[in-house]
Amino acid sequence: MDSPSPRRSRPHGWSVLLGLLLAAVGNMGYNLLSADLGYPGVAATFAAGMVVVAGLWVRRERPDAPLVRAAMYALLAGSLLATATSLLIPERLAGYAVLAAAVLVAGAVLIPRDYEIAADILCAAAFIGVGTDRINENLAGLFGGRFLLCAACVLTGLATILTGLWFLMGRQSLAVVGFIGGGLVGAVAGLVFLSHGQIPLGVGTIVGGLASAVFGLGVLVDRQPLLGVGGVVGGLACAVFGLGFLVDRQLLLGVGGVVGALAGAVFGCGWLVGRQLLLGVGGIVGGLACAVVGLGFLVDRKFLGGAGIAGLGLAVGAYGVLLLTEAGAGRRLGAWLRTQRGLPPVEAAATAVSGDTAAAAAPTLPTSIESGQQNTRPTRRRSRRGRRS
User: Fold this and answer.
1) Phi/psi class of residue 357: alpha, beta or left (left: φ > 0; alpha: ψ in -120 to 50)?
2) Which of 11, 66, 67, 217 is most solvent-facing, going by the fewest CB within 10 Å?
3) C-alpha angle 314/102/289, rounded to 5°?
């Protein structure tokens, strides 16, 4: 006997948001490719749409079917190939390769029925893209006069890639090496920035490296207070970065840093006090901050890094929506909206409907009983299905 299909019949709010973002990206891609490449651009846009449709088609299969896993691996491998291609081709064509990688990742994200797995895939692709961009930006400097700084940045990029692999493979050792190793190397890079007179960048990098190391230590020993301290310190690092970028008149990066500081504070406090609602709010605010920073990178024509950070923002925001859903924020918001509309709460409305239905279904009492005696047997109400906690 076949096992019943999963109960995820209706998409969550963040999946609808993902569809809208994909539509927006597809529209921008169509305008960009059709304007610059003519008919080949239209063909590329059509191919991108086919990838998304294929992902939705594979989604209809059983989650344990071999086709599902093969399709996910094929799309992720194609995305990795497109990412590597973007590093080898001229800069004027690199944006198209990054767009192709983003579309392939979107096709892979649409396949899983488990929304947490989809967010893990998106987060892994974002970390790998950002790490690859950091390595590509600093690899040539190893043979110049900035060996120590570029070496630290390359090692930080490798640690970022390992963190992305942790989201795919689930091995704790990868997360420990990625967070702790990348944080310590990042602190060294911050000292180099300070030696070159770049005060805000150096201070922010040192504080951010320490936050990453503390967060990785919390993952290693499984202690939520350490995760909370890492989040708060990371928010402080974002504040330093944001103020530094605002002083340099880089508006998008500065605003993203300031919003990221707020997200780090809320997220860290959520870990410290053990409130899932705060974690969800911090995830949504952090996703918004990453989206703004990614847009700033894209404006500066840093396509791979911008797409990676923007994808990370979408993944973090998705985690926030999932946490809010598990914390019952949707039910609370619905109850508040019903109160503002002057309607009774959901429980009272359901009880009233059940009582009316039972009264309508009750048989008519005989005349002798109606006139003389009172029926003391309770009416049997229809049972209601329990809600998920």
Assistant:
1) alpha
2) 66
3) 25
